Amino acid sequence: MDKRYFTLNQHLRQVFGTKVIKVSLDAGLSCPNRDGTLSYGGCIFCSEKGSGDFAGDRGLAIDEQFAQVRQRTVKKWPKAKYIAYFQSFTATYGPVDYLKNLYEEALNLDDVVGLSISTRPDCLNEEILTVLADLNRKTYLWVELGLQSIHSKSLEWMNRGHDYQCFQQGLAQLRQRNIRVCAHVILGLPCESPAEMLKTAQTVAYEDIQGIKLHSLHILRGTRLASLYEKEKFELLSKEQYIDLVADILEILPPDLIIHRLMGDGPAKDVIAPEWTRRKWEILNGIDQEMARRNSFQGSKYGSN
Predict the structure, then answer these.
(1) What letter does residue 278 receive in the DSSP assignment?
(2) What is the mean pLDDT of the chain?
(3) Secondary structure letter of residue 201 according to DSSP
(4) Distance CA 94, CA 83 (A)
(5) Predicted TM-score (pTM) of this structure
């Protein structure tokens, strides 16, 4: 069944004419708010794997990680192509020569047709921007840029270490080089009302982004968020609230914006709350059903707010 929103899968099939799978890799990097440059401990929600809980084993070389993850998909999609996805921690945070070699190594793997590089807006110096611009000229490239929220109080609560203006500056630097940008947004922060979450989506909808990832806040064992939740037991979004909010957001996004994700998830054994985030496909099906119930589509209200 065709979706009522423009999925990354649909976009990649249009570009490459076949199934394309993102393979999550761990480059063994860190983050400026983990190593003391900005702060320690990372973002409040971040796991010990730097939000790369489904990435390859960082103890393995890139080609070994790729083979490990690819093995899980090759039976179902034997003719698929792949995008090497540097997901864990901050994938532009390191010596530029090391990073350049890492990206090139991934591009040279069999059936890899592009790269996706996840980073922070404050980790885009001129050297790495030059490397990214060179990559963008010779391959299919996405840079996934963490924002999470436009609200300063929320960014401080998360220990992000940057503000919305920093995101805008990073976005502008990437778009000046014609690099595709996917923005990350978290829904369900306990310091935000649904109206504030919607305001983030409304604002980002008018930025020069080409893709978006919506994440549901979920609490993983071993995180700073888990410790806080144990003490405060703050209220989290219900499944029904999340589905309704995502449907509202899809309606106000541009119809040609590529939806990379509508649901964030973690390893089921590590999820403390909300319990419903363990059932990813149930939520995605619920979003489809809600959009059908409304007889609505992505972009149906874009420009009216």
Answers:
(1) G
(2) 91
(3) H
(4) 21
(5) 0.93
